[in-house]
Amino acid sequence: MNDEGSEASPTIAGYVTARSADPGPGLIFEDTTWSWSEVVAESRRRAAALSELRRPGPFHVGVLLENVPEYVFVLFGAALSGATVVGINSTRRGAELARDVSHTDCQFVLTDEAGGVLLDDLDLGAASGRVIDVESEPYRRLLDGQPAQRDRQPDPQELYLLLFTAGSTGAPKAVRMSQGRAARTSADSAIAFGPADVLYCSMPLFHGNALLANLFPALITGASVVLRRRFSASSFGPDIRRHGCTYFNYVGRALSYIVAVPETPEDGDNQLKWALGSEASPQNIAEFTRRFNCPVFEGYGSSENAVVISPVGGMPPGAMGKPKGGMDVTVVDPATGRECSPARFDVHGRLTNPEQAVGEIVGRNTADRFEGYYNNPEAEAQRIRGGWYWTGDLGYRDAEDFFYFAGRSADWLRVDGENFSAGGVERILNRFPSASGVAVYGVPDPVSGDQVMAALEIPAGQAFDPADFADFLAGQPDLGTKWAPRFVRIVAELPVTGARKLDKAPLRRAAWIATDPVWWRPDPALVYRPFTQADEDALCERFRSNGRRGFWPRPDA
């Protein structure tokens, strides 16, 4: 590869080298700006330092940092040195945190004082005793002592990143991403930007969304990146106005937090052209668009990147878009492997045939795009079955081949012998005006199968009215006969992963046991009342009498 990169086989390293003489603003953090040429110079120093720290074995470098410039310099330095960056989720703790580092064979971990405290006394495998504080004087001396050297341009197949999945449906898996795949995927996104664009990056750099939908496209085009140490809903408006941001990306519940901040007359006074994200509710998208005068586009992708569904012009409300060109993507019944029927909608745009239309999103010719999980053949086998790539996500598509998201495969519920997805119920409950967020999940039925439970996020200062909620449910014509929640948990804030995606795991574990208020309807009628200790004891006895002790969530059951 020459210094301008290779058109046939681009790499992130090649794109870094191509920016070495660019005087335009590259990275903006708080009150400091680095030109792209300065970013490259700093990255070259990191490349030399990483090479000096290297030991025999996999050249894997753990990074446990917030969104700070050092993270960016290490990412680009790793590209030039041939290192593999392992983005460590800063919300993980204890044994789970240690497992992330040791499982990925990190030789050392770059962190700061706060991260060092988290790693103290943990068995980090090969990285034990090699936790390096990037704010320390020894690290500064290491960087200052590095001589200039020629950029190393790697093979596109060389492993560059290990990106952990969100872990909302099991232990996080380390997705392999090569230099070439990172470059190609980012180049697809980069066509939307130019050097004059200013990209706001507040999603964590350990997540693929921040890299593939922000930092790397900016590198490719020479756009500027405004780096936010951590996401802050209250700082969003002031930040985008101060820096003249033209774009931002998000995942999970970020939009819901932003629109929960009290509206100001300045909200619409900004330079935003558009936003790109996933998993926001239609209500939050509409409210954000109104307040900030900024269109929002939702697509579908994952760290595995084997199936990509992109927004297109003229798509229906709530749709994710259409599969990327050349991808044969469909929706199948995971039990039979048969293709699901196209979705049908009523005059209000509501899905009328969820039982026939909802299934797992599958790529029938995309398996070769998946580069695998690190040290996890069992998980790889779950993804590639029969030559197809199974996403683990539920969805449906209409007759025009527009796709819609319907939740995770772990969100299948079976109530009274009927199978349906939690996403379909969530789509309806998101219309409830009093809730700023909704999570639907299954809890065990004392006889067999599941019962529907919903967690409603009710904003501070508001109260949950069970009669109002029951009236709301009764007025939803597309609510399936088995879909009305048996249990309702009222929470101040729904749990999220480190990437701010909804995390149902703690809700499932708690079921109806917790300090939050829980309401239930013990009978088929839509009449909710508080779930009391006496109710819990009686329900526990039903589990015992029916021999379903293993399904009861309480340890002493």
Structure notes:
It is a single chain. This protein has 557 residues and is α/β, with parallel strands linked by helices. It is built from 17 helices and 27 strands. A seven-stranded mixed β-sheet has the order 2-1-10-9-11-12-13, with helices on both faces. The chain has a six-stranded mixed β-sheet with strand order 6-5-3-4-7-8, sandwiched between helices. Strands 16, 17, 18, 19 and 20 form a five-stranded antiparallel β-sheet that branches. Strand 23 (437-444) and strand 24 form a beta hairpin. The chain is globular and about 75 Å long. The chain starts with 11 loop residues before the first helix and ends in a 12-residue tail after the last helix. 48% of the residues are buried.
Keywords:
seven-stranded mixed β-sheet, disordered C terminus, alpha/beta, six-stranded mixed β-sheet, about 20% strand, 27 strands, about 550 residues
State the share of residues found in helices, binned by percent. 25-40%
Radius of gyration: 24 Å
Structural class: alpha/beta
Apparent shape: globular
In short, what is this structure?
With 557 residues, the chain is α/β, with parallel strands linked by helices.
Fold blueprint:
Blueprint: H1 12-18, E1 25-29, E2 32-35, H2 36-53, E3 60-64, H3 69-81, E4 84-87, H4 94-103, E5 108-111, H5 113-119, E6 131-133, H6 137-144, E7 159-164, E8 174-178, H7 179-190, E9 198-201, H8 208-221, E10 224-227, H9 233-243, E11 247-249, H10 254-260, E12 274-277, H11 282-292, E13 296-298, E14 309-310, E15 322-323, E16 329-332, H12 354-357, E17 359-363, H13 377-383, E18 384-385, E19 388-397, E20 403-408, E21 412-415, E22 418-421, H14 422-429, E23 437-444, E24 450-457, H15 466-474, E25 487-491, H16 505-510, E26 518-520, E27 529-530, H17 533-545
Helix pairs in contact: 1-3, 2-3, 7-8, 10-11
